[in-house]
Amino acid sequence: MRTGQLYRQVRDRFRQAGLATPDLDARLLVSAALGVPVADLVLREDAEVTQEAAARAGTYEKLRLEGMPVGRILGEREFYGRRFFLNAATLEPRPDTETLVDAVLARTDPQQTGIMCDIGTGTGAIAVSLLAERPGCRMIAVDLSEEALQCALRNAGHHGVGERFYPVCADYMSCLRGGLDWVISNPPYIRSSVLAGLDREVIQHDPILALDGGDSGLEAYFHIVTDAASLLKPGGGIALEIGFDQAGDLEKQLRHHGFVAIEIIRDLSGNDRVAVARKA
Question: What is the pTM of this model?
Answer without folding.
Answer: 0.90
